[in-house]
Amino acid sequence: MVSYKDLGLVNTRDMFAKAIKGGYAIPAFNFNNMEQMQAIISACVECSSPVILQVSSGARKYANQTLLRYMAQGAVEYAKELGKNIPICLHLDHGNSFELCKSCIDMGFSSVMIDGSALPYEENVALTKKVVEYAHQFDVTVEGELGVLAGVEDEVASEHSHYTDPADVEDFVKKTGVDSLAISIGTSHGANKFKPEQCTRNAEGILLPPPLRFDILKEIEKRIPGFPIVLHGSSSVPQEYVKIINTHGGALKDAVGIPEDQLREAAKSAVCKINIDSDGRLAMTAAVRKVFVEHPAEFDPRKYLGPARDELKKLYIHKCENVLGSAGKAE
Ligand code: G3H
Ligand code: 13P
Ligand code: ZN
Predict the structure, then answer these.
(1) Which of 36, 96, 156, 188 best tests ligand 1's pocket when mutated (most atoms within 8 Å of CB)?
(2) For residues 101 and 92, is the Cβ–Cβ distance under 8 A?
(3) pLDDT per residue of the chain (331 residues) written in tens, 0 to 9
(4) Nearest protein Cα to ligand 2, atom 5
(5) Which residues have CB under 8 Å from 287's CB, separation 6+?
(6) Residue 273 CB–ligand 2 contact under 6 Å
(7) Inter-residue contact 275 to 236 (CB < 8 Å)
(8) Which residues of 54-69 are buried (b: 16+ CB within 10 A; e: fewer)?
(9) Do 63 and 33 meet the contact criterion of CB atoms below 8 Å apart?
(10) Sign of the CA dihedral running 30, 84, 10, 270
(11) For the chain, what percentages of helix, strand and coil (3-state, to nearest 5) are there?
C-alpha cells in the first residue's frame, strides 16, 4: 500500500473548494507517456496552475500501471526542479469497477472516478458508495457520474447520450458521499462530438455545434449549491490542428468540439474540473505529421516527439490561461 501523501500528491478537495470560490476550473489532462507528462507539468509550472494528471484504464494498460505511478511521483519532483511546487493530483479517469479503483488507491492515486453512469440508478449509487467508503479511509477523493456522454474511445464507449436529470443529483450525492459529480450537459468524448446534421455551418463552412445546456447546469447548481461539478468531453477540437493533420496526410472528417468561450463560461460556475484529452492528441498528431512530411528522412524520435511536446505545452498553457482560468492559481 502506497499513500499518495508520501509521493507529494494532493487530493482534489482543496483544489475544488478554491476553484469554485475563485470562478475557475482545474485542468484534468490525460497522459499515457513521458512527453505528455513533461508537457503538462512544464506548462502548469510555467503558468502556475494546479493540475490533475489523469490516467484512464486504457492508459494503464498501454503504459504499465507501475510506470505511470512512478511517472506521477516523478512529476512532483520535476515540478519542484522547474521551480514551483504546484498542487498535483493523480486521478483515475473512468474507473469501471471497485477493484480497479481500489488497485489505484493502493498504488498511490490521490483521486479516482467511479463511472457507474451506464448502470441503472440504484446500481450506480451502490457501486459509487462502495468506492467512496474505501477511498475515504485513505483521504482519497472520489468523482461519480450521473447522465451519459456520447462518444467512442478505447475504453469509454456510448453511442447515445442522455443529459443528467437535476432531480437525481441531491439524492445521489447524499447517498454516495462522493466528492464531485460529473454531469452530462451536451459535451461528449473524442474529436467528433457532434454529427454534422446536429450542427449549423458558418460562412466558411465550419461546423458550429449546438450550445451546452447551461439551463441544466444551473438547475443542478440550485439543487446542490457549491458542490464540485466535473465536465468530461471538453476538448474544443482546434480547427488549425485538424487542418494541419488533413493537409499532411491525415483524414479527420467533420471533427468538431466544444467552443472555448462556452467552457470559459462553465468554469466560472460550480464546474471546477474540466477534462481535456482529445485536443492534446490532435496537437501531438499535427506536430508529428508536419515533421514527417517536411523532413521525410528524419528518424530520430526526439526530432518528432520533441516538437509534439512543445506544441502540447503551448496548448496546455493556452487552456489554463484563456479557457479554464487556472493560471496563477497555484500561487
Ligand atoms: O474519456 C476518455 C479519455 O479520453 C481516455 O481515453 O480510454 O482512449 O485512454 P482512452
Ligand atoms: P475529450 O475527448 O473531449 O478530450 O474528453 C476527455 C475526457 O472526458 C476524459 O475523461
Ligand atoms: Zn471522460
Answers:
(1) 156
(2) yes
(3) 999 999 999 999 999 999 999 999 999 999 999 999 999 999 999 999 999 999 999 999 999 999 998 999 999 999 999 999 999 999 999 999 999 999 999 999 999 999 999 999 999 999 999 999 999 999 999 999 999 987 644 454 555 679 999 999 999 999 999 999 999 999 999 999 988 888 988 888 788 899 999 999 999 999 999 999 999 999 999 999 999 999 999 999 999 999 999 999 999 999 999 999 999 999 999 999 999 999 999 999 999 999 999 999 999 999 999 999 999 999 8
(4) 233
(5) 304, 307, 308, 310, 311, 312
(6) no
(7) no
(8) bbbbbbbeebebeebb
(9) yes
(10) negative
(11) 50, 15, 35
Q: How far is the CA of 311 from the centre of ligand 2 (A)?
A: 19
Q: Is 31 in a helix, a strand, or coil?
A: coil
- C-alpha cell of 253? 472528417
- Cβ neighbours for 35, distance < 8 A, ≥ 6 positions apart: 284, 305, 308, 309, 312
Indicate which atom in ligand 1 lies nearest the CA of residue 277: 4
10 Å CB burial of residue 292 (0-12, 13-18, 19+) is middle
| Annotation marks residue 14 as catalytic | no
Please identify which of the residues 93, 115, 179, 279 carries the catalytic annotation.
Answer: 93
The DSSP letter of residue 233 is S
Residue 303 is which amino acid? K
Ligand 2 pocket member 319 (CB < 6 A): no
282 C-beta closer than 6 A to ligand 2: no
Distance 305 CA to ligand 2 centre (A): 22
The answer to whether the beta carbons of residues 52 and 9 sit under 8 Å apart is no
For residues 179 and 13, the answer to whether their CB atoms sit within 8 Å is: yes
Q: Check pocket membership of 190 for ligand 2, CB cut-off 6 A.
A: yes
Number of residues assigned to the chain? 331
Distance CA 197, CA 199 (A): 5
Task: Identify the CA nearest to 217 among candidates 267, 149, 172, 256.
Answer: 267
